[in-house]
Structure formats: structure tokens, C-alpha cells
Specification:
Blueprint (H helix, E strand, L loop, with lengths): L2 H7 L3 H16 L1 H8 L4 H15 L7 H6 L5 H24 L4 H24 L6 H12 L15
């Protein structure tokens, strides 16, 4: 992009950063999760979400999310990350609730699953020997979604 082209779209670097964060928050938050949220079957929703996330991870490719975490002292970055984290955790929590977990366990399971997703992003940036994405997606689904998913797979609705 030339300097002239840049200034045709943005008045300054700060405006560019604000626009980029806004777009990232939109595309990776609720709007970006809408297609998953529309899946009625929670087991299928979780499986597809995990598969897409893991298959999108490219070995040794930088993650925008992880890069932004390094700048989380910037209030704009902090807000964008918070927005995306809330949307992702809300969807995961809702999914685990629909699978039969109590509110407390659903929220805890959602956080663990989300932490694993962020961990996979980190490993993709640093591990040239990572398994194929399809293998990781299968493992993630096996760990975070029992093969007998449904209320009997998560029998504690009482928390």
C-alpha cells in the first residue's frame, strides 16, 4: 500500500489500528461464530467448531489472537480480545449446557476447551513437527466431546 492510498482510507495509524481491531472483533466474535451457533445439535456444533479451529491452524503461522495478547495493555486491544473471548466462551458454555452439564461445569469445561484451542494456536506457531490438522481435530473432538455425547455423557445437571 502506498502512503497516498493509506491516507485515502485512514487519517492516521491509530485509525487503521482501530478499524483492524473492530473488523477482527466482528469476524472472530459473534458474527464469526454465527454459523456454529446456528447448528441445533450441540455435539455436532462442538465437533465442527473444534474441527474448523484446528484445521485453520497452520504450522509456524502467526496467530492474530496470540499476537494481540502481547499488546493487551492497549485498551482497544484489551476490548477486542475481551469481546472475542466472551463470544467464544458464551458459545462453548451454551453448547456444554445443551449437552447436559450444569451451569458451573459447563462454564469450566468451556474455559478448558478454549484454553486448549489457544494452546493449539500457540503450538502451531512454534512446533514444526505438529501432527496433521485432521489428526488434531479428531483428538480434540475425542477429548472435549464424548463419543456418546448427550445428557448421559454429562450426567451432572445439579450444580
Amino acid at each position: 500500500m502506498t502512503k497516498g492510498s493509506f491516507y485515502a482510507h485512514y487519517r492516521n495509524r491509530d485509525e487503521l489500528i482501530a478499524a483492524a481491531l473492530s473488523e477482527w472483533g466482528r469476524s472472530h466474535g459473534e458474527d464469526g461464530l454465527a454459523r456454529f451457533a446456528a447448528i441445533a445439535d450441540p455435539a455436532q456444533r462442538l465437533r465442527e467448531l473444534l474441527t474448523v479451529v484446528v484445521q485453520a491452524v497452520q504450522p509456524l503461522a502467526p496467530s492474530v489472537h496470540l499476537s494481540l495478547l502481547g499488546d493487551r495493555n492497549d485498551p482497544r486491544v484489551k476490548e477486542a480480545i475481551g469481546q472475542v473471548n466472551r463470544a467464544r466462551l458464551d458459545l462453548l458454555t451454551r453448547t456444554y449446557r445443551e449437552l447436559g452439564l450444569s451451569p458451573v461445569r459447563a462454564a469450566s469445561r468451556a474455559r478448558v476447551a478454549y484454553a486448549a484451542i489457544l494452546g493449539l494456536l500457540y503450538l502451531a506457531e512454534t512446533d514444526p513437527d505438529a501432527p496433521e490438522p485432521a489428526v488434531l481435530a479428531d483428538e480434540a473432538a475425542a477429548i472435549f466431546l464424548s463419543s456418546s455425547a448427550g445428557p448421559t455423557a454429562f450426567p451432572d445437571k445439579t450444580d
